[in-house]
Design a protein that fits this description.
The complex is a heterodimer of chains A (about 100) and B (about 625). Chain A has about 100 residues and is α+β, with helices and mostly antiparallel strands. Chain A has three helices and six strands; from the N terminus they run αββαβββαβ. Chain B has a seven-stranded mixed beta sheet, with helices on both faces. The chains are: A alpha+beta (about 100), B alpha/beta (about 625).
């Protein structure tokens, strides 16, 4: 479903840890956003969704924490990005390519 | 045009804009719709300033690159592109100090437009408590606009904000404000570079301590827990419904008594004749029959505002998103559908916050299937007359169970209809992307202003559309007058009576009598009018109309007919106000026709099936 071919790994950490998309991550994980990729499910709105995600602060380089999941099928996902909490569906989350951050003290 | 200097409040959703608006304008603000759309526009003069200044509160927005009808109105207003609206002379950007990045992003985007602007840095108290240190003067110098610290919930900084507004108004005098074209508003800077500037601003002027788990996070862990959170939401909703139907009763009785008293007073004062008949049965009964719902609407909106202001409502939307998606809706449709339990009209109006146009269309189509409070009088009358007041399974009351079943029938039908409508659509998705704002204590003043506004909007509609409809339906039920020597009730001979008799063969398969058909006509004004119409056609009078009517119905209808009548009211769009608001919201005659036809079709089908099955089972 997700292609991560367009990842432009700019961060050094990225080389050590494997790339995943946010929908594959677990509750409590601290992550660094590496890239935003296309998600065909959004059709022609995909670029707008990318733009809106960026405008809300989902920019490559930012760190985020997975707070929890919704009622069914671990969907939606709640995350904290630079102090602000957001609810994302798995579809949006699959646009966000992340790497694991070393556990913070 | 107007000699007011116009200031516009712009900001992210949940930044406290409306609180600031309420404090700046006090009780003199007016709510109206923007021309052509039903997004509400709050406008009011700012008091205590020498210049004539008016303030308009724009819908909350994250960006000028819009993603919902609400955001589009905000953008068009800022640019001055909304037809019939003067462009704002000065922008007042409101930024939540605990959520600076997101707010500043909008501010820097707005700044490019070149409109004079100032910044209200709201909730500085909450920011201080979290250890966030902001150099306000440094920020002001860096962005190049005045920055005023406020705590809207406690009225702090409002005077300073007024001073800044007065100064800006002074500066503006004698200038004219231009409309900004799309080309001029075109963005040249990338999101990345804009955020880069924000990081620079923040590094120089803001100190944010490392993020620690606080009570907010702990509360979220409970509230958004897949199981515990869902259970909590269920309890909350149950409490809201309990409150809407139990707490409202004294106030409803009071209003009902007031209108009845007024009707009697007029009836004894005026001479008999058409004028008295018009005032008592047309105006007072018609308008009174709708105003009676005001307490329930106020209580429901009280809870909705409470949940909204505290930040709980978005958590509810989060929890319900996945279950609702199963039928083609999303968590964002939860609020409109919840409002529809009081009345579908405000429910349908609030679908404008739903970004996906197809989801919005579906939410509008199914909103009237949520059992609105207007159906209650009809349900209670028929249930009391036909369903025995027995206890089943130990502690369930059979009448209560029937009422509950009718609510469930509406919700399940809404889910089915939404699911079917979604099948027709392509599977292209829209994002949820919901900000979960920080929890905070709701302010009593803000709640009061919100309720006052809802009440005013409702009463204005009563005074216009509903009043006009009452008059039309009164005329239909009154003219022509019965011939001399007629024995039956007057309505039998009226246009409504003739239409009812004409309709009756069509309603034969569900066992409806012509009296029942007649009652359906005035009930188009509001469903509960069916009760008084039934009383009229069955010529029941006296002090306790409901009791007497219940007995009459109990002896003249069979149980299958009564159940079929209930089934009809679950579905039928017996409400011209709803049809009118669907027309305005969808702006499409085809959609409105579909809405009306499909609901009447479902009602017909449900009533026929109920009647036939009940007859077969009960003999």
């Amino acid at each position: 479903m997700t292609s991560i071919t367009s990842v432009s790994g700019s961060d050094d950490n990225a080389l050590q840890s494997s790339f995943r998309t946010l929908d594959q991550c677990n509750k409590g994980e601290c992550l660094r956003l590496q890239d935003l990729v296309a998600q065909p499910a959004f059709g022609e709105h995909d670029e707008e969704v990318t733009l809106r995600l960026k405008e809300l602060g989902f920019l490559p380089g930012t760190t985020m924490t997975v707070l929890g999941y919704g009622f069914l099928g671990r969907d939606p996902i709640s995350v904290k990005v630079s102090g602000t909490k957001f609810a994302l569906r798995r579809t949006e989350a699959s646009k966000l390519v992340v790497t694991t951050l070393e556990a913070q003290a | 045009m107007s000699d007011f200097i116009r200031f516009a409040l712009v900001g992210n959703p949940n930044c406290g804009k409306t609180s600031i608006f309420n404090h700046l304008t006090g009780a003199r603000a007016k709510v109206a719709n923007y021309p052509g759309v039903t997004v509400e526009r709050r406008l009011g003069p700012i008091t205590g300033i020498s210049e004539n200044v008016e303030l308009v509160d724009l819908p909350g927005t994250y960006s000028l690159h819009v993603s919902s009808l609400d955001e589009k109105v905000a953008r068009d207003m800022i640019l001055g592109q909304l037809a019939g609206e003067a462009p704002p002379d000065v922008l007042v950007a409101v930024v939540d100090a605990t959520n600076l990045r997101l707010g500043l992003r909008l501010v820097l985007e707005l700044e490019k437009l070149g409109r004079p602007m100032m910044l209200a840095l709201n909730q500085v108290d909450a920011a201080k408590r979290r250890g966030i240190k902001i150099d306000t003067e440094g920020l002001a110098a860096a962005i190049g606009i005045p920055v005023i610290e406020t705590v809207a919930l406690r009225r702090q900084g409002i005077a300073a904000l007024k001073d800044a507004i007065a100064q800006a108004a002074e500066l503006h005098k004698g200038r004219t404000t231009q409309v900004i074209s799309d080309d001029q508003a075109q963005r040249t800077e990338s999101v990345e570079s804009l955020y880069h500037r924000i990081e620079g601003l923040m590094n120089a002027n803001v100190e944010i301590p490392a993020d620690r788990t606080n009570w907010q996070d702990r509360l979220d862990r409970l509230v958004m827990h897949p199981v515990a959170g869902m259970a909590l939401l269920f309890v909350v909703l149950l409490t809201v419904f309990q409150a809407v139907f139990a707490w409202a009763t004294p106030a409803v009785d009071l209003i009902d008594g007031g209108f009845t008293g007024l009707g009697e007073l007029v009836a004894t004062t005026l001479p008999d004749g058409i004028l008295k008949n018009f005032i008592v049965d047309g105006l007072i009964a018609g308008v009174g029959g709708v105003v009676v719902f005001l307490p329930q609407i106020i209580i429901l909106f009280f809870f909705i505002l409470l949940m909204e202001d505290s930040g709980y409502l978005t958590r509810a939307a989060f929890l319900l998103d996945r279950p609702m998606r199963g039928v083609g809706l999303s968590g964002r449709s939860f609020i409109p559908l919840l409002s529809s339990f009081a009345c579908a009209v405000p429910g349908i109006m609030s679908t404008r916050t739903v970004p996906d146009p197809r989801e919005r269309a579906i939410a509008i189509m199914v909103a009237p299937l949520m059992t609105c409070s207007a159906r209650l009088p009809v349900y209670t009358l028929i249930i009391a007359a036909f369903i025995p007041n027995d206890t089943v399974f130990g502690f369930f009351n059979l009448q209560g169970l029937t009422l509950f079943a009718l609510y469930i029938a509406g919700i399940v039908s809404a889910a089915l209809v939404a699911w079917v409508l979604r099948l027709r659509n392509t599977r292209e998705e829209y994002p949820l992307l919901l900000e979960l704002p920080a929890f905070r204590w709701p302010s009593a003043y803000h709640l009061f202003m919100g309720l006052r506004e809802r009440t005013w909007v409702f009463l204005r509609r009563v005074g216009t559309i509903i009043l006009a409809l009452s008059v039309v339906l009164w005329a239909l039920s009154t003219f022509p007058a019965p011939p001399v020597g007629a024995v039956g009730p007057a309505i039998e001979y009226s246009f409504a009576g003739q239409i009812g008799r004409f309709m009756q063969p069509l309603f034969e398969p569900m066992g409806f009598t012509w009296q029942m058909c007649i009652a359906l006509i005035p009930a188009m004004a509001a469903r509960e009018v069916a009760v008084s119409a039934l009383a009229t056609v069955y010529a029941v009078g006296g002090d306790s109309v409901e009791m007497a009517l219940g007995q009459t119905l109990g002896s003249s209808w069979g149980l299958p007919v009564a159940l079929a009548y209930l089934a009809w009211f679950v579905y039928a769009p017996q409400c011209l106000a709803t049809i009118a608001v669907v027309r305005r919201e969808t702006n499409s005659a085809a959609a409105t026709t579909f809405f009306t036809v499909y609901l009447f079709g479902l009602a017909y089908l449900a009533a026929v099936l109920t009647y036939q099955i009940a007859t077969a089972l009960l003999g």
